[in-house]
């Protein structure tokens, strides 16, 4: 199966789909863009809370493992998973971004769509760094 349904996949594809919706949203609907964004970011936070509920504390291994084989001929693949440290960083990230949006609710009036796109993309890439099993050590070094 190419796409296995688990919580990591839901969070990754949820943020990607939310970013795609923001790209095609009309720029003059600022009220509805804000409402959509805050609801969507809270849904991503709720999904990450389910990671905490399903996390097994008795093992030190990565959990919720997802493997993507991009080019099997060249042996290019990527693995995503969650360990004990990245779990709390994911929870913190997904909680922080709705708070950032709520704190800028009345102050950002110009270029709102671009601001929200950057917010969604930053959260997407943060979560991808925390989900990645091979390059997670780079995040600690830098």
Termini separation comes to 35 Å
Main structural class: mainly alpha
- The helix count comes to 5
Share of β-strand residues:
5-15%
Determine the fraction of residues in helical runs and give it as a percent range: 55-70%
Number of domains: 1
Order of helices and strands: HHEEHHH
The biggest beta sheet, please? Answer: 2 strands, antiparallel
- The backbone outline, from C-alpha atoms, is globular
User: What is the spatial order of strands in the main beta sheet?
Assistant: 1-2
Cα radius of gyration in angstroms: 16 Å
How many beta-strand runs? Answer: 2
Name the poorly predicted regions: none
Summed over residues and divided by their number, the pLDDT gives a mean of: 85
Walk me through this protein's architecture:
The chain has 142 residues and is mainly alpha-helical. It has one domain. The protein is built from 5 helices and 2 strands. The protein has helices spanning 7-24, 30-54, 84-103, 112-131, 136-141; strands spanning 63-71, 76-82. It has a two-stranded antiparallel ribbon. Strand 1 (63-71) and strand 2 (76-82) form a beta hairpin. Helix 1 packs antiparallel against helix 2 (30-54), helix 2 runs antiparallel to helix 3 (84-103) and helix 2 runs parallel beside helix 4. The longest helix is centred in the first third of the chain and has 25 residues, at 30-54. The radius of gyration is 16 Å and the shape is globular. The N and C termini lie far apart (35 Å).
């Amino acid at each position: 199966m190419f796409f296995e349904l688990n919580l990591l996949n839901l969070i990754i594809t949820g943020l990607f789909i939310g970013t795609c919706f923001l790209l095609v949203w009309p720029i003059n609907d600022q009220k509805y863009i804000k409402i959509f964004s805050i609801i969507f970011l809270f849904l991503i936070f709720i999904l990450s809370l389910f990671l905490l509920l399903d996390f097994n504390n008795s093992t030190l291994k990565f959990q919720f493992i997802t493997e993507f084989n991009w080019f099997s001929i060249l042996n290019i693949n990527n693995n995503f998973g969650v360990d004990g440290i990245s779990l709390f960083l994911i929870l913190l990230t997904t909680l922080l971004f709705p708070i950032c949006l709520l704190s800028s609710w009345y102050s950002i009036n110009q270029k709102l769509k671009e601001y929200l796109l950057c917010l969604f993309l930053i959260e997407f890439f943060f979560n991808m760094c925390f989900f990645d099993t091979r390059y997670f050590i780079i995040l600690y070094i830098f």
